[in-house]
Amino acid sequence: MKIFLVDDDPFFAEMLKYYLQLNPDYDVHICSTAKECLSALYQTPDIICIDFGLPDLQGDELFNQIKNLYPDLPIIVISGQENIEVAVNFLKLGAKDYIVKNEHTKELLWNSIIRLKENISLKQEVKELKDELGTKYAFEKTIIGQSESIKNTFSKINKASQSNINVSITGETGTGKEVVAKAIHYNSPRKSKPFIAVNMAAIPKELVESEFFGHEKGSFTGAADRALGKFEQANGGTIFLDEIAELDLNIQSKLLRALQEREITRVGGNQKIKLDVRVITATHKDLAAEVKKGTFREDLYYRIIGLPIELPPLREREQDALILARHFIELFAKENKSKPLTLSNEAKKKLLSYGFPGNVRELKSVIDLACVMADNGEIMAEDITFYNLEKKSENFLNGQKTLKEYTTDIIFHFLKKNNNDVIKTAKILDIGKSTIYNLLNQTENKKTQ
């Protein structure tokens, strides 16, 4: 640590320097005038200790000039005046300590610098952690894959991170909605501010308002103390509202008001708290369909939709399952301090032949288990176990149906899976849109007969 001692008493300054440099980590530089101190600031000291009574400039004037140039630079004032008013004034201006010159000065200064050093180290650690988060959520490390669908998604995420627009993420369970939300936040200008994630499905309906906006002491039974809500905690940063479609209609109106007015009021309070929060929402449901059903407010829908990002399911991402599998194999090896395994050709075929209804999350579980089961440094097909939570295909084939009936079942299965999106279903099944529309018309006619 580089420490400046600014004092016109050479004997006193040398005594402090000798004492402080008993710690080999301290590099102490003496300045005998304010002018000398100001001209040496380019050396970027970590701490400055200034004497109140200097020959060329009063301590408070030097203090103000340093603060104007370097607002965050810690300053300790050392003075021959045991004046409470002067001490309080300096502390109000931002001095880290006010030490009176007497027989205890060197011990008081030593302890004061130790406290400041711990604070500086903590700030540096926080900065490094935030930088690490930014690196951790760099696009190329989180959005893994080479398929056209994921490249298109990557492009939208990149655009979202460069603006302050709200973002709505849709996709099946396990496609990585929160990972994408974090990638947007930690690559945006808000990356040094909080990222607060809230899962709507995990909060009881009667507690959502308090969870969102906080509450004052005594505002309801059990409110023993004031509590800050998630929006207040996220101020300046990003709030991620996962499973937004699960939000009760009554709370939807309060959320809409908070987003429109950019302010909140804690439950049981009157003080209005200004908000500067970016909102990222996520759901596995079709929000537009929820609006039509009347379960989601149309005005809130338009407020949060912002830049929509639809995450493709793994089964639509071509060879990405293999790229992700290799990534998870390397991750497993790193976490378990072992050598990465390889995938046999049969294992690759088995992975590519499976639909992964649980998407990327399911793939990771499958690969973790395969890494445990594998022998001789290679994952074989028999090491790969799928969970098959859906009905087994044998049950599907056991029925006595015609080819036309089986075809109808398959089309309706994929229509349901794709929220009745005819174009997407036609593309997945490689059939014409008219085939699906004709089937839907025939089904509707049978119902009306």
TrEMBL record:
<dbReference type="InterPro" id="IPR025943">
    <property type="entry name" value="Sigma_54_int_dom_ATP-bd_2"/>
</dbReference>
<dbReference type="InterPro" id="IPR011006">
    <property type="entry name" value="CheY-like_superfamily"/>
</dbReference>
<dbReference type="InterPro" id="IPR009057">
    <property type="entry name" value="Homeodomain-like_sf"/>
</dbReference>
<keyword id="KW-0547">Nucleotide-binding</keyword>
<feature type="domain" description="Response regulatory">
    <location>
        <begin position="2"/>
        <end position="116"/>
    </location>
</feature>
<dbReference type="InterPro" id="IPR001789">
    <property type="entry name" value="Sig_transdc_resp-reg_receiver"/>
</dbReference>
<feature type="domain" description="Sigma-54 factor interaction">
    <location>
        <begin position="143"/>
        <end position="372"/>
    </location>
</feature>
<dbReference type="Pfam" id="PF25601">
    <property type="entry name" value="AAA_lid_14"/>
</dbReference>
<dbReference type="InterPro" id="IPR027417">
    <property type="entry name" value="P-loop_NTPase"/>
</dbReference>
<dbReference type="Pfam" id="PF00072">
    <property type="entry name" value="Response_reg"/>
</dbReference>
<keyword id="KW-0238">DNA-binding</keyword>
<feature type="modified residue" description="4-aspartylphosphate">
    <location>
        <position position="51"/>
    </location>
</feature>
<dbReference type="InterPro" id="IPR003593">
    <property type="entry name" value="AAA+_ATPase"/>
</dbReference>
<keyword id="KW-0067">ATP-binding</keyword>
<dbReference type="Pfam" id="PF00158">
    <property type="entry name" value="Sigma54_activat"/>
</dbReference>
<dbReference type="GO" id="GO:0000160">
    <property type="term" value="P:phosphorelay signal transduction system"/>
</dbReference>
<dbReference type="GO" id="GO:0005524">
    <property type="term" value="F:ATP binding"/>
</dbReference>
<protein>
    <submittedName>
        <fullName>DNA-binding transcriptional response regulator, NtrC family, contains REC, AAA-type ATPase, and a Fis-type DNA-binding domains</fullName>
    </submittedName>
</protein>
<dbReference type="InterPro" id="IPR058031">
    <property type="entry name" value="AAA_lid_NorR"/>
</dbReference>
<dbReference type="GO" id="GO:0003677">
    <property type="term" value="F:DNA binding"/>
</dbReference>
<dbReference type="GO" id="GO:0006355">
    <property type="term" value="P:regulation of DNA-templated transcription"/>
</dbReference>
<dbReference type="InterPro" id="IPR002078">
    <property type="entry name" value="Sigma_54_int"/>
</dbReference>
<keyword id="KW-0597">Phosphoprotein</keyword>
